[in-house]
Amino acid sequence: MSRVHTLTVAEVVEETADARSLVFEVPPEHAEVFRYRPGQFLTLRAGDAARCYSLSSAPHEGSRLKVTVKRTVGGYGSNWICDNVRAGATVEVLPPGGVFTPESFDEDLLLFAGGSGITPVMSILKTALRQGTGQLVLIYANRDERSVIFGDELAALAREHERLVVIHWLETVQGLPGTEQLRALAKPFAGHEAFLCGPAPFMAAAERALADLGVPGDRVHIEKFVSLGDNPFESAPVPEGGETTALAVDLDGTRHEFTWPRQQKLLDFLLDKGLDAPYSCREGQCSACACRITSGEVKMLNNEILDSEDIAEGIVLACQSVPLTDDVSVTYE
């Protein structure tokens, strides 16, 4: 489990009555491991479980990392963190993962956020203001004014940057935002590249609104998290017996050759063999473990992130891949 690191919490920031930001110190020797792109997330060990939380800090802000956690009713991970983690505590963390990030920060961006969905959007927004040149429009929905995370910071950024427009939607004032309302708000900005993060009904309404406006699907990017069923900090059981596949793996400039049990997932097998293969959620939801099949064939048991173009290029999720042929070659290069 060499990708598991222990970070110290330097500060806990109370953002709202039910949202906290954890600020982590990253030792200089781990700076490269925790280098991240705006919109990515960290996987944290939260008590007896593991949860993924988006980074609300931006890479240009310094070496400290910040994730923001909002309590959810009955949510084990969020409540455990808010109740137990204090400054000075240590938390086991996996390196950053995720693909919810713009290819260019010079693009005009239309950002939809609902509730704590502002977390990765905030990282993208701050980076675009610092590094990019495009127009930025944020449509941010919350229950009421007290629920607005980063409200003061957003107001300050909007005052400082003319190319940032922030549109707040408060449920207590306007009711729940539906497709028709979001379509009207987004219409002047339909040519922008869109990024969506928030509760499922909010994102579904925003996605329908953008489709109604003719925004191409490849310009709409959605970030969603569900609670992890398994714990990526724990080793998976090793199967015994059965058929095997000859496996060749190119990783970190070195070729490794193994006999791979057909009933064992590729990532689990590589970790068992002591290789430092990348991963995060281990459930097919984040793409941190993506690799390329250069020969042979595998089957993915679950895939919630790769599209048909990725798959056509041979990209697979190692955490969900089992072999189908006698020989398989894989590269992480």
Q: Assign a percent range to the helix content.
A: 10-25%
Radius of gyration: 21 Å
The averaged pLDDT comes out at 93
Predict the CATH topology of the largest domain.
Rossmann fold
Tell me how many strands there are: 18
* Second CATH tier, the architecture of the largest domain: 3-Layer(aba) Sandwich
User: What is the CATH homology-level superfamily of the largest domain?
Assistant: Nucleotide-binding domain of ferredoxin-NADP reductase (FNR) module
Task: Catalogue the unreliable spans.
Answer: none
Termini, distance in Å?
21 Å
The total of helices stands at 8
What is the SS-derived class? alpha/beta
SSE string, helices as H and strands as E: EEEEEHEEHEHEHHEHEEEHEEHEEE
Keywords: 2Fe-2S, FAD, Flavoprotein, Iron, Iron-sulfur, Metal-binding, Oxidoreductase
Domain 2Fe-2S ferredoxin-type: 245-333
Pfam families: FAD_binding_6, Fer2, NAD_binding_1
Cofactor: FAD
Describe the model.
By secondary structure, this protein is an alpha/beta fold. The protein has three domains: 5-97, Elongation Factor Tu (Ef-tu), domain 3 (Beta Barrel); 109-223, Rossmann fold; 244-331, Roll (Ubiquitin-like (UB roll)). The chain contains eight helices and 18 strands. A six-stranded antiparallel β-sheet has the order 4-3-6-1-2-5. A five-stranded parallel β-sheet has the order 9-8-7-10-11, with helices on both faces. A five-stranded mixed β-sheet has the order 13-12-18-14-16. It is globular. The protein starts with a strand and ends with a strand.
